[in-house]
Structures are given as C-alpha cells and as structure tokens.
User: What shape does this take?
Amino acid sequence: MMRAELWKTLRSPLLWVVFAIAALGPLEMSSYYLHVATLALIYVALCSAWNIVGGIGGQISLGHSLFVGAGSLLASALLLKLGINMWVGMLIAAVLSGALGAVIAWIDFRFRLGHLSFALITLAFAEMAEIVAIGWDFVGGASGLLLPRDTGDFFAFQFGGGRGSYWAALTVAAICVLANLAILNAPLGYWLRCIRDNEDAARAIGVGVLRTKMLAMVISAMLTSIVGTVYARYLAFVDPYQLVSPLITIEIVLFATVGGLGSAFGPALGAVVLLPLGEILRGKLGGVLPGLHAFVYGLIVIATIMLSPRGLLPLFSSWLGGKAAPESKAPA
Amino acid sequence: MDELLQALVEGILIGSTYGLIALGMGLVYGVSGIVNFAHGDFILLGMYMCLGLYSALTLDPYVSLIITLPAMTVVGALVYRFVIRPIASHHLLMVVQLTLGLTLVIQSGLLMVFGGQGQRTPSFVEAKLFVVGDIVMRGPHVIACTISFALAGVLFVILRSTDVGRSIRAVHQNARAAALMGIDVGRVQTIAFAIGIGILAIAAALLAPGASIQPSDGLRYTVITLLVIVLGGMTNFVGIMLGGLIIGCSEALGTVYLSETLGGLLPYAIFVSIMLFRPRGLTWGTS
Assistant: This one.
C-alpha cells in the first residue's frame, strides 16, 4: 500500500520528463548558466537532505552547516594533508557526520528540548564549529584549502568541471530527492510526521521517538555531508567562512521553507527558483551599487512568502489543478 | 583578581543592554509567538540612523533619540501590520523566513546608503571613564547599563499596571480568551511589536557611542538576542535580564582569559550547558 504510492510517483511521466530535461540541459547551456544550474542542483540536494529532519520531522535544525563543513573541509583536508582518496574521505566524513547527527538527536531526546531550544542549541553548535574550523590549521584555518585542478579522473573524485560537475550535482540531487520520496512512503516517514504533529501522542501509540529522530538525523547528516564533499570539489577553493558558516544553513532553511516544507519536491522547487534568482540578480545588479541585488532579492523573498504563505509547491500544484496538500501544523 | 572583577563588571555593563534588547524580542514572542530574525538588523538600523543624524546635524546619539525613537516605533508598527500580520497564522518557520527577508532588505539597504566599511558615531561621553577602586568603566557602558535596568523597570511597571500592559499580558496568557473579553488582539500585537522595535531604537543609541559598526553586524546581535531569550525562558522578565548578564559576562571572561578562538566559544558552550540542565530556561518566579 505504502510502497504502491512510491512506485506511482516514480512511474509518473512528469517526473521523468523533468529529469530528462535536467540531464540533457547542459548540452545547450552557456558556461555561466551551467554554473548557476550546478549550484542550484547542489542546493536542491542540501535542501532535500535538510527536509528529512526539518520538514518531514519538524525538528528545526540550524546546525546543518556542521555536516556541510565536515563533508567539504574534512574530506579536502584528508586528501591534501594525509593523501587519502577523496571517495574514502567522503565516506569518512559522512560516517562522522552521521555519528554527530546521532549525538545531536540523542541530546534533543534526552533533555526533551522544545523546538526553539533545539534550533538554538544546533545553532550554537554550528557557531562553535565555525570558530573551531577557522582556528584549526589541519582543515586549512582561516585561509581555507585549495583542491588540485579537476582533471576529470573519476577515481580521484574528479568530474572534469563543467558538464561533469553538473551531472555529479544532478546525481546527488536525485539521490536526496529520492531519499525524501522513499522516507515519506516508508514507516519512518509516518513516524516522523506523527512526532512532528504531536510528540506525546506519537509516544503513546508506540512510536519509538528516540530511534526515529536518530535515524532521520543520521540519514540527513550523512546525505548533507556527501553533498558537502561534492560542493567542495566543485568550488575547488574550500572556504570555511562560506561552508561552515551558519549562513549556509540559513540559506538552506530559507529555500526549503519557501518551496514547501515536508513534501518531497517542495524544498527542491524552492532551491530551483530562489538560487538562480539570487545568482542572476547578483550578476545583473551586483556591479551597479553594492547591496542592490540583495535588497531586491530580499523584497522578492518577502513578496513570495506573502503571496504563497504555504510554500511554492502548494501554490504550483493548485495551479496545475491538483489538490493542495494540507498544511503542516506550526510547531508551538 | 582585579582582572576578574574588571571582566565581570564589563560583562555586566554590556550584558544589561543585551538583556534589554532581548526583552523587546520576548515581548513580541509573548503576544504573537513570532521569532524575529531581523531583530539585530533593526538595532543596526537604529545605530545607522544615529550615525546619519550625527553626520547631517552633528546630533549626539543620545539626543538623536528624539527622532529615532518615534521613527523606529512607527516603522515597527507598519512592518508588523502590513508585512508580518498577514502571514502570522502560518507555519512558524515561514514567519521566520519572512523576517529573514527583512534582514536582507535592511542590511543591504544600509549597505547601499552607508557603504560597507566600518564606521563609528562619536559622542560627548565617549572618552569619559569612571574609576572605582582599580576598576575602570567606560562612560557609554555605564550609561547603557543604568538606562537598560531603568527601562526594564519601566517596562515592568507598564506591563503590570497600565491598560495597554494588562491587555498585552492577557493576550500573552490566552489570545482567544482575551479576544472574547473585547481586546483587539491584532492591535495589541502591533503595539507590542512597535514597543519591541522602539526599545531597539533606545538600545541602538546606547550601543552607538564610539562603537564601530558595519551593515552585516545585525546577525551577530540577532544570535546574541536569541541565546539570551532562550536562556531566559522566552517571556520571563527576570530570566531574560539574567540571561543577558550571563552572555555578557561569558563574552567578557572569554576575551580576557582565553585565546581568541576559545574565547569566542565560551558564550555558546555556557549556553549549551545551561540549556542541558535547564531545558526550559532559567525561569523561576512569575512571568
């Protein structure tokens, strides 16, 4: 029954048309738009990975920069300082992120944190991680790390830049969206939504709260870390001020929320709409007057939220004539 | 020993202003359940208004309050009425993202008008020092601390014994029941938001003298405010002021006793450890 829903979504022609367009798109794109599209896909992956905890589970984590940072800085440092293959480095970072995620979920459960306390404690962890990363020479310190040139050697975690990197980003984006779809249609997704809507009731009907929260956080953290490694490889310059900063979490949460929390495609939609918008505004207005592009971007974000306070996805699906998904309850 | 006392005094002086800033957020949260991520940027807006008034009319930050306080209060009321209130009934995170949009607008607006380099607003008290025993206190800090506590007291009295205060408390306790008693909940929420932003105008004038500011500093103040308000148990007056003092002192102690890296960690580490032992904040007594 539950699996049948998943197969139905996977067999939807619309999904495959979108995927085919996304996969073949770079053949026709200029390098600038290819760059914007690659970034958008990386954020699709990051937002979808965050959605497992923040959207489906309703646990507003502001600490995901920890996992992006582990995936990018640690995997790069392992390669540059110890000569460890980046594929292995990616796995090491992912396992570490998973362990970290498990600890955070355990703290949340053990001390019965409220929503805001959880958000703030994860934010405090993230702020501490940034300070540590900037002061720690092994991961490059304040000056960051420079990865070797991308020669397209697949076994060295190199995708050749340009289209190769785009397809790598598309792969992780597809994996993260698929993970969302699979979780939404699996018992884990039902438990998570149950906990989100009423934790006490979930406990009363026998949902293993600790196990569910930990599992969701571990999956989300590992995916985020893997995307972080791909992101670092794409950027080639690994800057702690960019990748371990809580600002990256703020972007992720912004895109995911504006897109539509808790659904499989909402966060992806948010990233696909908002990231290119920001980049193109920066390209068009960045040289005119410093701050102008972010000013316009902020106004558009405000306008978007006021026009579609339930997220872009419900808005789009009501345009397409589909039934809008019921809004998830606001955490108290 | 002197070093310790000096650090603690500095922490208390700056922490009281943190407490005052967080009171503004607590007031808003109490009546409308909104967490305003643009809080710090409104402080920056106030500080830049002081700067602008100084460069245009050579007004001292304290004097420019005559203009900034009403201006910020009106801005607060308008922002709440026309931007936040229409979506206030939706998902908490959506409201937070809306305030993030405000953050972008304010921050880049300031960047467009004033530029990105650090700037400072001079004041007549800037160079004044108060010396008690071996402890040296900077003039603006002493003024900021005194006014912060006085203002917290005034707010407390307003909430306790005026009609506006009583209706704010009623909405805080139970918005639906308050509405049934004939209180215009939307109006009370707008007033609370306006007061919250008005407090920031005062806090900005207290922080401005001699401080170097950049348009991007807002997030730092927002994070500090969030730490303080969560420590204080969201709406508890005494708890929030105490939270402000704790964060202020841990910042000051961190800078004096630890390396640059570890010193920056201290407020967060203290925050996390307090939250683990008192997950609902430092609340005791009445709210």
In short: The longest strand of chain A covers residues 145-146. The beta strands of chain A are 145-146, 237-238.
